[in-house]
Design goal:
This protein has 354 residues and is mainly α. The chain has 15 helices and no strands.
Length: 354
């Protein structure tokens, strides 16, 4: 790391330490809210899907599913890669990215194919977009469905542009590998549960960290009497859940654009979640950054046009309203069980490989 970067990092960490010390009670409260958000909303909607997606890949069923619905052929990818696209579109972040990495580890796709696949399969699921963003934040399930369709359309259009024009890959790069030999179901299940539990804990770390950052920044912007759009823009860049809520608070075409951008770009939180899967496997996310940035702009533009043509009156939602119905005790029990599950199943698979 260059010297000037080290200086910036050192001063940034020093400032963060001072702020966390001076405002320790606020930091603890924000972190608790973030944990409650994870326990009540994030993990229940991710953990089962992550277990199922790993089982699909490791058992070879994902390859068969991909051959039945060859969506990946549009991007010049093997038919087996279609499972990542389908799971990413239905299950939401970061199941698509994790499935792409699992396909790479199992030998179904090459390194380049996995990088392309991550860039186009890491999308928001319909349950969040329609149920939370559309129905809860904007008071319109129709807007939620429109946003979901805009996101998938943008991922397709931008994915083709980035992976065929900006960073094209040759046909000779395509994988000729086959899936690994069959394994006992007990091993597949143990490995899938262990990986899903560990991944969910990692995801929660990113969610809580960025949640605390956004809450501090939002409080600072409020104290400085800055326009709400600054808080919404920052939240859209960092974490898409809060970004969509604050975008709805702004309303109008500007709020719709920020909401669409939040879903398309997905935020640094989701990006680092993808990093936690991809980087240990030696995969680059250069394509993902390009696709998600352009996807965010295109999705936001389409949402702004939709609201301009079909006006929607969003519901006001406080940024800290998500975990209001959960209890701290439930969060402690939930995470304790998750940690024990991850450790126990990992011990069972310690000397075995998929």
């Amino acid at each position: 790391m260059k010297k000037w970067k080290l200086h910036i990092l050192a001063w940034g960490l020093l400032l963060a330490g001072v702020l966390l010390t001076v405002f320790s009670s606020q930091a603890s409260a924000y972190a608790l809210d973030g944990l409650l958000l994870c326990a009540g909303k994030v993990i229940p909607s991710l953990f089962p899907y992550m277990v199922v997606s790993s089982l699909l890949v490791y058992s070879g069923l994902a390859a068969k599913l991909g051959r039945l619905i060859p969506a990946a052929s549009l991007f010049s990818l093997p038919k087996e890669a279609s499972s990542s696209l389908l799971l990413g579109a239905v299950c939401g972040f970061p199941v698509g990215a994790k499935t792409a990495v699992d396909l790479y580890k199992s030998g179904c796709v090459s390194k380049t194919e996995a990088e392309v696949l991550i860039s186009i399969s890491n999308n928001t699921g319909p349950s969040f977009v329609v149920g939370i963003v559309g129905a809860l934040f904007w008071g319109s399930a129709a807007f939620g469905w429109a946003l979901y369709c805009f996101q998938i359309l943008a991922a397709t259009v931008v994915g083709l542009f980035v992976n065929r024009v900006l960073f094209p890959f040759k046909a000779s790069d395509l994988s000729k590998k086959t899936a690994s030999a069959s394994k006992p179901f007990s091993l597949l299940f143990s490995t899938s549960v262990s990986e899903a539990a560990s991944s969910c804990l990692s995801i929660c770390g990113f969610v809580v960290f960025f949640y605390v950052v956004i809450r501090f920044c939002t409080a600072a912007f409020t104290a400085a009497a800055t326009p709400p759009i600054f808080s919404a823009l920052l939240a859209s860049l960092l974490e898409f859940t809060t970004g969509t809520a604050l975008g709805a608070d702004i309303s109008g075409w500007a709020g719709a654009f920020l909401c669409g951008f939040s879903v398309g770009w997905a935020g640094l939180s989701v990006f680092f979640q993808a990093c936690s899967f991809a980087l240990p496997a030696g995969l680059s996310l250069k394509r993902t950054v390009a696709v998600k940035a352009l996807q965010g702009v295109l999705t936001g533009t389409l949402c702004a046009l939709y609201v301009f043509i079909f006006p929607v009156s969003p519901t006001k939602m406080a940024v800290n309203a998500f975990p209001a119905n959960e209890s701290p005790a439930w969060a402690v029990v939930f995470f304790s069980i998750l940690i024990l599950l991850a450790l126990f199943t990992k011990m069972q698979c310690k000397n075995q490989k998929i």
